[in-house]
Each structure stands twice: as C-alpha cells, then as structure tokens.
Specification:
By secondary structure, this protein is α/β, with parallel strands linked by helices. The protein is built from ten helices and ten strands. The model has no long low-confidence stretch (mean pLDDT 95). The protein binds S-adenosylmethionine. The site of S-adenosylmethionine has 24 residues, from loops.
Length: 272
Amino acid sequence: MDRDVLDQLRSLINRESGIYLPADKEQLLVNRLQKRLRACGVKDEREYLKIVELDASGEELTRLLDVVSTNVTHFYREERHFSILTDILKDLEKKGQREIKMWSAACSSGEEPYSMAMVARESLDSRRTAVRILATDISERILQRALQRHYVPAQLTKLPPGLVKRYFNAESGAGSDLRSVTDDIASLVTFKRFNLSKFPYSLKGQLDIIFCRNVMIYFTLELRRLIIAEFQRLLRPGGYMFLSHSENLLGISHGFKALSTAVYQKPEGVRG
Ligand SMILES: C[S@@+](CC[C@H](N)C(=O)[O-])C[C@H]1O[C@@H](n2cnc3c(N)ncnc32)[C@H](O)[C@@H]1O
C-alpha cells in the first residue's frame, strides 16, 4: 500500500466531491478502490491514479466518486421530519400557494424524494396545488437505481402501510417480490446529477423546501458553511431546510430560525 498515492487519491476525492476521508479511514478507501482497480485491469493504486488523472472525459472520476460515496438510506428515514413536512405543506396550501418546489439535495437511491412525493400526495389537493421535487446526487450509479424505482419489501418497512398500498405496484414476473413506485409519484420527481461542492449552484432560486440529510457529515466545516449559504440564497423567504438529526449548524453563522430538531426556516422578509 503506497501511502503517498493514497493521500493523493484522498485529496483528489476531497477536491472533486467535498468528501473528506480522514487518514484513519484509509482501509475503507483501499477496500472501495478494489472494484475500480479490477474494472480497469490495473495492479495497484498508483496505476489507477494515473488513469483518473489522464482521463480527460472525467468518466473514471465519476466511477471513482461512485465507489467512495456512502449511499445508505431508507424510506421515511427520520420519520418525524415527514410529519413536520405534512404540516408545512398543508399550511402552504392553506395560505394559497399553488405551486410548491422542493429539493432533495443528496437523494441517493430515491427513497427520500419518493417519501417526500408520497407525503405531498397525502397532504395536498392535487387539483389545487402543483408539486415539483428536484432530486440530485453526485453518484451516477445511484441515480440510475433511483430512476428504476424498484425496491424489495424489506426497504419499505418504515413506511406507513397505507402509503405502501397506495403508492407501490407489485412487479409482475415469476418469483419477483419487487415493488415499484407508481408512475404518479415518479412524475413529481426529477433526478439530476449535481455536485454540492461546486459553487455557485446553477439552480434557480425560490425553493420552498430543501432536504439535505446525512451528507454534510462527510464534509469539512468550511464546505458546510458554503453549502448553507447557498441554501439560504436559494430558499424563498419563509422557506424550510431539513438537515439530519446527526447534523447541525454549530460553527456556522447563518440567518435561519431553528424550528425543531434539524429543521430550520429562513425568516420572512429576508432576501438572498
Ligand atoms: C448517506 S446518503 C443520504 C441519502 C438521504 N439524503 C438520506 O438521508 O437517507 C449520502 C448521499 O450523498 C451523496 N453525495 C456525497 N457527496 C456529494 C456531493 N458532493 N454532492 C452531491 N451528493 C453527494 C452520496 O452519493 C450519497 O448518495
């Protein structure tokens, strides 16, 4: 194992994705790299680093980021956030809003944005209020999986049974126990590759709700500061930001109001 090469790979990963792999996670990196070393037919990390650096198309870099990103997720993760989301959506509709824009900013294999879409269908009158959900992730591989929208029953156990019944179809085919998210729910969600560590963000502002959960734990405080500032800029006054229960805004100066655990609101009347 060549420490110098591994350090160069760690810096490259950090520069390109914001993912910070501390030196004591070296073995994790080595394990995850094996898949790419095999796929590229190279004997060690040094040869592999050369391939990534010389690949002008950026494709091998994408594959590298695919293997180093941690994609663990599930439907209705941090369940309480979805009951808070229900209240927020109902309130927005009651106040007369006719279109609600949400962003799942590290969506992994789709469980988070599809959960948001199901909650929207349950809480809002679709004849009155349109919903659009942008779901983004840095990993091409995981976005492909999200687009397939197939899940095994074990992945649905945290969802209320009513939602499973209304928003999943059983996949036909011998021996298949897959469930697929309905076309209606899928139609609310647009998936796109997006890197949270590259600024400024190319998105249009005036979002109502941002979910960015269980990804900033892999970033440095400096990067988290920049991300939070972008979220603040992109949210409309009064908009909401959801982080995960294991993340907070400690050490970050911001203008958000804390509403509940890891739920924040941009005050009304604040622009930019
Ligand atoms: C642990 S999953 C979180 C999924 C979901 N938000 C949740 O809470 O269950 C973290 C996701 O962040 C993505 N990710 C890592 N670095 C990223 C970056 N720089 N930009 C966008 N997504 C990134 C990973 O590919 C992964 O799918």
